[in-house]
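Q: What structure does this chain adopt?
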Amino acid sequence: MPERIAVRSLRTGGVDYIEVPTQAEAARASLERERDGYVRRGLPDRVAQVDAALAALDPEPVDEPADATEPAEDVEAAAPTPAAASTTTRTHGGRRPHRR
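A:
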């Protein structure tokens, strides 16, 4: 889970939050980008090596429930959390930047 850090805008004084990935999340993302490059270049040996490194990051696969194909009956439980709903960041305090 990414760490959430509060940052203060120097211009407006408002507080926004940024999400900083953990070291494991950053390593996984880096290996996935590396793997995509090898797939595009047609290097199956390197793809297999990166797949092994990705598998080493997650030694135990996550078990999916057997009835995962059935739709969720509880609609409220499937609603996004407030933290997940606010993934956008404001960079100009809601206003357009001044053009010179």
